[in-house]
Design a protein that fits this description.
Blueprint (H helix, E strand, L loop, with lengths): L20 H5 L3 E6 L2 E8 L10 E2 L6 E2 L5 E6 L8 E4 H6 L6
Antiparallel strand pairs: 1-2, 2-5, 3-4, 5-6
Length: about 100
């Protein structure tokens, strides 16, 4: 009789959830350099925010709320409390400081 190396409770049934790439990418932090400044940039779908949360994009000065995909950015040398929320395109074009 063969040996079973699978842990108890392990099954390979059809009840496994398919991988959601968008959910896996949400929240991935990376480091970006712009004009010699090191920024920490984290993607977010905005879906996990409180329903009444509103942000103002420093790039275009337009407000947006939960459910809008955007990036959260802060200067790596500063505290995370200095973070700002940008539309994706606005962050790509942005070249200033976050003060």
């Amino acid at each position: 009789m063969g040996r079973n190396n699978k842990p108890k409770g392990f099954s390979r049934g059809d009840d496994e959830e398919p991988m959601d790439i968008a959910r896996l990418r949400d929240g991935i932090k990376k480091t970006v350099f712009k004009n010699g400044i090191e920024f920490s940039v984290q993607t977010t779908s905005g879906k996990t925010a409180d329903g009444d949360k509103i942000w103002k994009c420093p790039g275009c000065h337009i407000t947006f709320g939960p459910g809008i995909s955007h990036v959260v950015v802060w200067e790596s040398a500063l505290d995370v409390s200095t973070r700002r929320h940008f539309h994706n395109v606005c962050w790509q074009k942005y070249q200033g400081r976050l003060l």
